[in-house]
């Protein structure tokens, strides 16, 4: 690790290390405070991490842990004076198909307000929403009364990153839309290219339908493998820039190398012919790592318009270190990532249009319409910018009584986020 770690000069000398500590503690004792995220002078977490060999699943799209098959944001519940009441409510972001959550009829925008008949979700037990036995949840939808639903026991659920795609026709505008939730090439890890092949077919469909505007939804995408990020960027890059640099990777020795855009025309119908070489990308605070690399890679070659929130600022890559003789493997940050013009985005990408679906001043109805609904808060904003026509009344007048809530305290997509862009191990197909 000392030779490969990006901030190897910050690793303490051997006589300063406690070799009797448990592996996780020992590993963290070697890490630099430059590794991870610091906010307001406080170091929040590290990007580099360890895991046991037996737990490693090559970043498959099948959750390592059983799941109910949904993602959510957790909020403090507050009183009229904005004082926390000591328990949480969970707002559902999206539901995976063929999951316990979908079988129970849960939908984006639903509030889970309790488990087993009580307001009992708190800082100690919110994991009960991630996985567990068959149970009952208290759920509120819009202005409807709280109802009790039965939910099956958690299990392995496939999480296809190509969550939704569609084309919307508005006059002479053919607007392609893709919700892409993590950079995973296939259901069985980096050597499986099933999802990448599906992505090419989706873009062939976009091209066949004459898409000339594009909205890429990365608001729930915390990163993943470099090869899939490169594939997505290569399908969006203007044809004139197909042989340009996708990303530049620099190590702790001052050495660097670059990867060009991975343009695979086989299985596609060609390039999208976007108006003014322009693309709209939806972002949030959860947009990180490989998602940011895609934004950064496209910026020098096309007009990238960001709608949403400031992104994470995770401009690093990591490579797996593994020895089968040992119980542990680790993923240290080994590379700094920039683009063709050496742009450093460690402070995150500030949106061109600040737009937050949880901001009640911007979204006063507090409605979360289904992803892909043209009146959905974020997509609707992009469509209005493309067409010059304001969002429809349906999107703005959907009745939904807001829950008295404070700041969000957790988003479940965080558990899928990688420490940095995952580089495909040497010897594997990229």
Radius of gyration: 22 Å
Count of distinct structural domains: 2
Q: What share of residues is helical?
A: 10-25%
Biggest pleated-sheet summary: 6 strands, antiparallel
Oligomerization: single chain
* Strand residues, percent: 25-35%
What is the topology?
Elements: H1 23-29, E1 37-39, E2 42-45, E3 49-52, E4 70-78, E5 84-95, H2 100-103, E6 111-115, E7 135-140, E8 147-151, E9 162-170, E10 173-180, H3 194-208, E11 213-217, H4 226-236, E12 245-250, E13 256-260, E14 278-282, H5 290-298, E15 303-308, E16 316-318, E17 328-331, E18 333-338, E19 353-354, H6 377-387, H7 393-397, E20 405-411, E21 421-422
Parallel strand pairs: 10-11, 11-14, 14-15, 15-19, 16-21
Antiparallel strand pairs: 1-2, 3-17, 4-5, 4-20, 5-6, 6-7, 7-8, 9-10, 12-13, 12-18, 16-18
Helix pairs in contact: 3-4, 4-5
């Amino acid at each position: 690790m000392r030779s490969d770690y990006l901030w190897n000069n910050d690793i303490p000398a051997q006589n300063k290390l406690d070799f009797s500590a448990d592996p996780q503690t020992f590993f963290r004792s070697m890490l630099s405070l430059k590794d991870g995220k610091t906010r307001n002078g406080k170091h929040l977490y590290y990007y580099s991490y360890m895991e046991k060999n037996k737990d490693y699943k090559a970043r498959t799209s099948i959750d390592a842990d059983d799941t109910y098959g949904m993602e959510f944001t957790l909020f403090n519940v507050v009183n009229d004076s904005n004082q926390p009441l000591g328990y949480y409510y969970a707002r559902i972001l999206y539901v995976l198909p063929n999951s316990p959550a979908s079988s129970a009829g849960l939908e984006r925008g639903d509030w889970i307000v309790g488990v087993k008949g009580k307001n009992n979700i708190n800082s100690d037990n919110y994991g009960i929403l991630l996985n567990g036995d068959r149970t009952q949840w208290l759920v509120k939808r819009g202005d409807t009364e709280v109802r009790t639903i039965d939910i099956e026991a958690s299990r392995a659920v496939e999480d296809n990153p190509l969550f939704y795609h569609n084309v919307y026709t508005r006059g002479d505008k053919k607007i392609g839309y893709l919700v892409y939730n993590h950079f995973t090439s296939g259901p069985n890890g980096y050597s499986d290219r099933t999802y990448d092949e599906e992505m090419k077919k989706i873009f062939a469909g976009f091209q066949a339908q004459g898409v000339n505007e594009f909205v890429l939804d990365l608001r729930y995408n915390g990163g993943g493998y470099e090869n899939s990020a490169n594939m997505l960027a290569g399908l969006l890059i203007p044809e004139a820039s197909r042989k340009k640099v996708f990303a530049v990777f620099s190590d702790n020795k001052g050495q660097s190398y670059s990867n060009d855009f991975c343009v695979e025309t086989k299985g596609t119908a060609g390039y999208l012919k976007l108006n003014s070489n322009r693309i709209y990308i939806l972002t949030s605070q959860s947009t990180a790592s490989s998602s940011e690399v895609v934004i950064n890679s496209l910026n020098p070659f096309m007009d990238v318009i960001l709608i949403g929130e400031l992104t994470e600022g995770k401009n690093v890559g990591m490579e797996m270190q593994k020895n089968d003789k040992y119980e542990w493997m680790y993923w240290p940050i080994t590379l700094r990532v920039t683009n063709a013009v050496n742009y450093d985005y460690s402070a995150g990408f500030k949106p061109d249009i600040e737009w937050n679906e949880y901001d009640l001043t911007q979204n006063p109805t507090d409605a979360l319409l289904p992803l892909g609904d043209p009146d959905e808060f974020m997509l609707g904003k992009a469509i209005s910018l493309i067409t010059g026509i304001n969002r429809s009344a349906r999107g703005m007048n959907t009745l939904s009584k807001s829950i008295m809530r404070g700041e969000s305290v957790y988003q479940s997509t965080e558990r899928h986020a990688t420490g940095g862009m995952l580089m495909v191990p040497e010897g594997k197909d990229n």
